[in-house]
Write a structure and sequence with these properties.
By secondary structure, this protein is an alpha/beta fold. The chain has two domains: 6-84 and 241-274, 3-Layer(aba) Sandwich (Rossmann fold); 87-231, Rossmann fold (3-Layer(aba) Sandwich), CATH 3.40.50.2000. The protein is 32% helix and 17% strand. The chain has a six-stranded parallel beta sheet, with helices on both faces. A five-stranded mixed beta sheet has the order 1-2-3-4-11. The longest helix has 14 residues, at 218-231. The radius of gyration is 20 Å and the shape is elongated.
């Protein structure tokens, strides 16, 4: 860090090092990459207060969603730069990992709502639910049509997604997680591969190929899955590459479509997040 001209700090434990980075590298650009809300990640309260305390050490921050701007109250330049996609997923092996029948898949552990999977599997016994890397689970997922996998390489998950009938983002209800409508990597990957997605209403945003349910509401879960299955595949959405995201992160002022979130913009984001 002492020899670096630019240091990028990812949201999470890296926050604890921001002041140290500034002390040992006073001339470096320090950029905070706010990929997630620290509270939603379950970080220690110390990290939340520390980010607020040391924000003056930062040159700017990148947020992938306007809703994440509510976490910054200081006079710190914020740039809105959405997440990217690894386009190499199109080059992955296209052999289906499934047998016959109808298959649905969920990938990842963030805010994983086990109760959704249990309800969905009960409502749709004809569907095989494949749950990849959900983290700690209970015996409730032992139904015959639920298949739980451990953590899996990203490239391996692609074939499970691309050959599914529909995909799932079973997030638990969290009032601070509305930004996932813009930043959920699994939902972006599902869209990029042209698959309909079932997810909580707070994560749907204005995306036409996401079908909403209310966590814990069995009727809405049933309706969302039925609609997704009728939907079928769609034309993939348009996304930037990660290389493009990195260029904007390092030099945001060079891109006129990478807007600076002003104090008014942050106030508006906070207002929408609270509403």
């Amino acid at each position: 860090m002492r020899d670096a001209g630019t240091v990028i700090v990812e949201s999470g434990l890296g926050v604890a090092f921001i002041e140290l980075i500034r002390q040992i590298s006073p001339n470096a650009r320090i950029i905070y990459n706010a990929s997630d809300d620290l509270a939603v990640l379950g970080c220690a309260p110390f990290l939340l207060s520390e980010l607020d305390r040391v924000a003056g050490c930062l040159d700017w921050a990148r947020v992938p969603s306007r809703a994440l701007a509510r976490g910054f109250t200081q006079d710190l330049p914020l740039y809105l730069i959405p997440h990217g996609i690894d386009f190499r997923v199109w080059d992955q092996e296209d052999t289906s990992p499934y047998g016959s029948g109808i298959h649905a898949v969920s990938v990842g552990s963030m805010l994983f709502d086990e109760s959704f999977v249990v309800s969905a599997a009960y409502l749709f016994p004809e569907v095989q639910f494949h749950i990849i890397g959900p983290g700690r689970t209970s015996s409730a997922l032992s139904r015959a049509n639920i298949h739980v996998y451990g953590e899996m390489k990203f490239t391996e998950t692609v074939k499970y997604i691309s050959h599914a009938k529909f995909c799932i983002a079973p997030y638990r209800r969290d009032e601070n997680a509305k930004y996932l409508a813009d930043t959920s990597m699994k939902l972006m990957q599902y869209d990029f591969l042209g698959l309909p997605a079932v997810c909580p209403a707070f994560a749907t945003g204005d995306h036409p190929h996401r079908f909403a349910y209310e966590p814990g509401d069995v009727a809405s879960i049933k309706n969302a899955i039925q609609t997704a299955m009728r939907q079928g595949r769609h034309k993939p959405g348009h996304f930037r590459s990660w290389a493009d995201v990195a260029k904007r992160l390092i030099n945001p002022d060079a891109y006129p479509d990478t807007p600076l979130l002003t104090a008014d913009g942050r106030a508006a984001a906070l207002s929408r997040a609270v509403a």
